[in-house]
Write a structure and sequence with these properties.
The chain folds into two domains: 140 residues, Fructose-1,6-Bisphosphatase, Chain A, domain 1; 112 residues, D-Maltodextrin-Binding Protein, domain 2. It is 35% helix and 26% strand. Strands 3-4-5-6-7-8-9 form a seven-stranded mixed β-sheet, sandwiched between helices. A five-stranded mixed β-sheet has the order 11-10-12-14-13, with helices on both faces. A hairpin with a 3-residue loop joins β7 and β8.
C-alpha cells in the first residue's frame, strides 16, 4: 500500500498531544467507572479528541476507531474499514496506573489495513520513549533501530510479564506454583509491555484477553524487532477480530516455542 503516513509525523502528533494535556504529570486523579468495570479519566477523552482531530484532518482517507468510542461504532468501523484502512487508538493505556500515580502507562496508535497493522507508534510519556514500526521496515526506539536480544536464553533464565487476572484459574495456579521462568512482573499497561518485550527488558509475555487497540501497534513493533507472538491456542494474532484475544509472546522463536508448549501442558493441571 503506497502513500502511507510517515512514522515521524505520527510520533510527533502523539508526543504533542501528550505534552499539551500534561500526560507525563502522574498523580492521584479523579476517575469514573465505565460499563465494563474499567475506569476512564478526562485525559483519556482529551487525548483521543486531539489525536483523532489531527489524524482525520491530515489523512481523511482512513477512518478512525478509538477506545473511548461507543462499542457499536467501534465494531462498525473495524468492519467497514478493513480494505481502506483505519486508525486504532488507545489514548491512555494503563489508566488505573495513571490515576493512582503509578508511572507506567502509554499511548498506542496503529494503522490497520486488511487485518494487518501497517504502522505502529507507542509512546511512554513518563520516560519520553517513542517506539515505532512500519511493516517490513523495522522497529525503532526514538531514531535507533530496535532488535530483540537473540542470545540463547533458557526458559528458566527469563523474566516474564504476566497478567494473571485474565487467565483461566488452572493455568494461573500452575504459574504461581511451578513457574518455568526466573521471575515475573505485571506492570499494568499492555501497550508498553509489548514494547518492553521488543526492547528485551522482559523476555516472555502472557495476557489472557486484549482488545485490538491493546496489541495492534505493540505486536507490530515486536514483530519488526524480531520477536514472535500468537494467541494461546497458537492462532495468528491479527486485527480482523474485534473480540478480546489472548496473547503469548517471546523475544525469539525458540523461546516462544518452549513457552507455548509449557502453557499448553499446564492449562489444565
Amino acid at each position: 500500500m503506497s502513500g502511507l503516513p510517515e512514522l515521524s509525523a505520527l510520533c510527533q502528533i502523539i508526543v504533542d498531544a501528550a505534552e499539551q494535556t500534561g500526560l507525563s504529570n502522574f498523580g492521584l486523579r479523579h476517575a469514573e467507572a465505565k460499563a465494563d468495570g474499567s475506569i476512564v479519566t478526562d485525559l483519556d477523552h482529551e487525548m483521543q479528541r486531539i489525536i483523532s482531530t489531527q489524524l482525520t484532518s491530515r489523512w481523511p482517507e482512513f477512518s478512525f476507531m478509538g477506545e473511548e468510542m461507543d462499542h457499536g461504532e467501534q465494531a462498525q468501523i473495524v468492519t467497514d474499514g478493513q480494505e481502506t484502512g483505519f486508525w486504532a487508538l488507545d489514548p491512555l493505556d494503563g489508566t488505573t496506573n495513571f490515576a493512582m500515580g503509578f508511572p507506567f502507562y502509554g499511548v498506542s496508535l496503529a494503522l490497520v489495513v486488511k487485518g494487518e497493522p501497517k504502522l505502529g507508534v507507542v509512546y511512554d510519556p513518563v520516560r519520553r520513549e517513542c517506539f515505532s514500526a512500519s511493516a517490513g521496515e523495522g522497529a525503532y526506539l526514538g531514531g535507533t533501530p530496535l532488535k530483540t536480544p537473540q542470545s540463547p536464553l533458557a526458559l528458566r533464565e527469563c523474566v516474564a510479564n504476566i497478567d494473571y487476572k485474565r487467565l483461566v484459574s488452572g493455568l494461573a495456579d500452575a504459574l504461581v506454583r511451578y513457574p518455568p521462568y526466573r521471575s515475573q512482573r505485571n506492570l499494568g499497561s499492555s501497550v508498553l509491555e509489548w514494547c518492553w518485550v521488543a526492547a528485551g527488558r522482559v523476555q516472555l509475555y502472557l495476557h489472557g484477553g486484549q482488545r485490538m487497540w491493546d496489541y495492534a501497534a505493540g505486536s507490530l513493533i515486536l514483530r519488526e524487532a524480531g520477536g514472535v507472538f500468537s494467541t494461546i491456542p497458537g492462532n495468528v494474532l491479527d486485527c480482523r477480530k474485534f473480540t478480546k484475544r489472548s496473547a503469548i509472546a517471546a523475544i525469539t522463536p525458540e523461546l516462544h516455542r518452549l513457552w507455548i508448549r509449557w502453557i499448553r501442558e499446564n492449562e489444565n493441571p
